Every structure is written in C-alpha cells, then in structure tokens.
Amino acid sequence: MHRTLVKCALLAGAALAVLAACGTDPGSGTGRPTKAPAPTPVKKRQTPPGLPGMPPVLDPEDVYAADRPGRLSPVVKGFPSRVYVPNTESDTVSVIDPKTYRVIETIPVGRQPQHVVPSWDLKTLWVNNNRGHTLTPIDPRTGKAGKEVEVHDPYNLYFTPHGKYAVVMASLDRELVFRDPHTLKRIKTEPVTCYGVNHADFSMDGRYFIVSCEFSGELLKVDTEKMEVVGQRKLPLDGAMPQDVKLSPDGKRFYIADMMAHGMWVLDGDTFAEPTLLPTGKGCHGLYVSRDSREMYVSNRGEGSVSVFDFAKNKLTKKWHLPDGGSPDMGGVSADGKVLWLSGRYDSEVYAIDTRTGAQLARIPVGSGPHGLAVYPQPGRYSLGHTGVFR
Length: 391
Fold this sequence. Notes:
There is one protein chain. The protein has one helix and 29 strands. The protein has one helix at 2-21, and strands spanning 82-87, 92-97, 102-108, 113-118, 125-129, 134-139, 144-145, 149-150, 156-159, 166-170, 175-179, 186-191, 197-202, 208-213, 218-223, 228-234, 242-247, 254-258, 263-267, 276-279, 284-289, 295-300, 305-310, 315-321, 328-333, 339-344, 349-354, 360-365, 374-376. The protein starts with a helix and ends in a 15-residue tail after the last strand.
C-alpha cells in the first residue's frame, strides 16, 4: 500500500511538471495553456544618415568606435610613434620619441606655428604657421618637412568628414576658408561676424559643425555641404572665451572648453539652444576622449591640472594636479590609450600623464610657446583635423 501511494505521488508530480512545461497552469482549473507576456522589444538606435561620401558610422552609440587601442589604419601602420610639438615663439617643431621621452629632432618651420594637424587621409601632418601664412607638410613616415604651401592666416585646420574640404580657421581674417584638402586651393570663403574662430567639431552625421569664436565669446553652427553659417549665438557669460570643442560619444551633446568661464559649456548641437556651464578648473582649455570612450580629459591651463569627466555619470570624477604646476594646453592620447600628452604653453615643456593614475610620467623641455601638439599615429579611419580628432 505504501509503495502504491508513493508511485501515485510521483506520477502526479510528473504530470504537473509536464503541464507546467506545456504552459498550462494546473491551478487555473481550465486546463488551457497560459500565454507568457511578450518581451518588450529593445529599440536599437539607428545609424543616422551621414553626409554623402562620409565613411559610415561604425556604432550609432559611439562616434569614436574606430579609435580603440591598436586599431591603426593600414595607411599609418608603418609610421614611427612620435609626438610633434609646434613651438609658437621659436618657429620650430620639436619631435619627441614617446618611448624615451626625449626630443630627437627640431624642425624649423614658418612664423608662429600653432597646431600640427593630421590630414583627412592620414598621410600628412600640416603645421599651421599662423603669422607666416603658410602650412608646412611633414611626412610622418620619415619625419621630414616638405615645401611650404601659402595659406593666409591658418590658425587652425579641419577636414570635413567626407574628405572633400579642408577648413582653415582664419582667426584674424574672420573667415572660414574651404579649400581642396590636397592642393589647399581656395574653394569658398565664408566671412563671419564673430572674432577669433579657432576650434570646431562635427556632428555624428557630419552634416554640420560647431565653431568657437574665442575673442567675442560666441558659437557658430555651420552647414557642411552648403559651406555656410546657419546659426550664431552669444555665450551667456560676459567675458566668455571658448576654446576646444568636442562631441560626446553618443553624438547628443557638444562640449566647449572656456578658459574664462573655467569650465565646459554643454550644448545641444541640433537645437543650438542656450548651453549650460559645467565648471572644471581655472583656464579650461583642451578636451580629449579616452580610448574606451568612457571619459574625457580636460586640461585646465590656469591651474596646472587635468579634470576627468565621465560621460555615463555626466559628471567630473577626478582631478589630477601636475606635481610642480604648469600650463597644460593642447595635445592628444597615445595610440594605446595609456598616456595623455599635453603642451605646457607658458613653460616651454611637454607633459606625459598616466591615464590610469594621473601620475606625471615625464616633463620634457621643448621650444618657446608649445601649443597644439599631435600624437601620431593614432587609431581611426580618417582625421577631422585639429591636433587629431579621429573617427
């Protein structure tokens, strides 16, 4: 009798298991299968339609997805790793070997070199000789300078995402000059009414870019295809002096460093509405995205520090102070993402900073007035210019 009861219990348990597996609720009394709730579909963000001719965005959630450590383009894989430092008051470019932290060569260039700019096709480095009114090409494979090209007032230089135009930031001329990216022949001149056009970055789809006007505290929105200004606004702070511009990885916001507001303006580029200010430190100047796109390094030139901004947390999480002070300005991140290189604008030196700890790895003497240094090569498919904005 005991065995029979056990057997019945086992059979009943098995039957309940079968009913459950078939989606039947044994307690409902109906014997009908119950439907599991349909899973909520996860909407994947669509890649925005890009500027015609622009390489497609690899990841609609991360415009810097092509910039991961080691993802060097075949174009640059044979180039030696170097740091090129334009010395504005010495009219030279110091070339640093990042392995030894030593200057291995000094290249004479034109008057007042401001930035060293990788070309869209990654094959050339252009030195912007602002008061010399020339661009000096450097072959990054050999490190040798070529013949200067006449270009008036080249304070800074950018390239449109489809590689069709170079854009010269003619700061004192108050112009955006669109040129052939190879010959530098003038294609169109767009006069501006603000003062001191100097830095820029492009939207994720490449159809427009935001430009900072340093001396009048204004921002411009420029249509890439039409090559014309379509928006202009004054920053909501008297004495604002906007500098570097950088797009967030998800493409939703632009950050604009401001050395007089001592922080970053956060701007919705699509609406071009009034931006908000996020304080970072005195003399906020340069903006550099980490290789994993999680953080951005912000150089505070007026206090010798670097603030670290976390994109996901939408806040500053760390601040690194240079042990002996300094004037960290413009620069870039090493190809492996481990070192942040910054020029010391007023101290005739360059700083190498460990991106994991914030420790200073080296302090290297260079010429007078070091400014927009370029770390080269870096990962990425093409360059948007400045000291190396790659996508």
